[in-house]
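lol so apparently i was supposed to do this last week
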Amino acid sequence: MDQHGMLFNKIAPYYQWFFNYQVWHYGKIVDQNIHLIDHKNIDTILDIGCGTGAFGYVFKKQGYEVMGIDVAPEMVKRGKNNDLYCETGDISKGLKCKDNSYDMVISAMVAHGLTEDKRVNLYKEARRIADKIVLIQDYKFERNIFVDLIEKVEGGGYFNYIKTGESQINSIFENVVTRNVSRHLNWYISK
Ligand SMILES: C[S@@+](CC[C@H](N)C(=O)[O-])C[C@H]1O[C@@H](n2cnc3c(N)ncnc32)[C@H](O)[C@@H]1O
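anyway here it is w/ S-adenosylmethionine bound
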């Protein structure tokens, strides 16, 4: 596990404090925007970088079969306590899942924190594993003072994400549909 993963492993107990808030916030986003996705053909979902599981949990409550994967064992432990199927896995080493093995791959708030090469790994793994749809929820590709401050503290790849993220996602996926779903967040939908 790299330093970024170790940070999340360490903060997992505190991250869990916000689980109910996250479920509420993500739930609202999903309710308002699920129509953007051709979701009637979707049964199985893989949540990459699931953390404590809030994004996957929202889909599970809507009846989908959800599996979560995260590099941090302490996150996975909490995801399981939150009633999700989860296991450890590292994007940069390749995930154990077979090609096209889930109808949809989702990933919330993971891409912006990764280094450029790991972000490419995330997008490529999502494309490989998804049979129908990839849904990435993450920051818009634009500076915002509030997000800048939070991300300065986290110390991840956010500032690189703002600069190179858009061309990166478009170089890996065809026809990415970008929709603004909250003040700071977009959905990037593709396959
Ligand atoms: C900001 S958290 C988002 C968690 C969750 N998706 C959410 O929205 O609450 C980023 C997550 O990505 C995970 N992560 C970071 N690097 C990873 C990697 N190389 N492979 C898999 N997961 C990774 C972290 O452990 C962390 O749980």
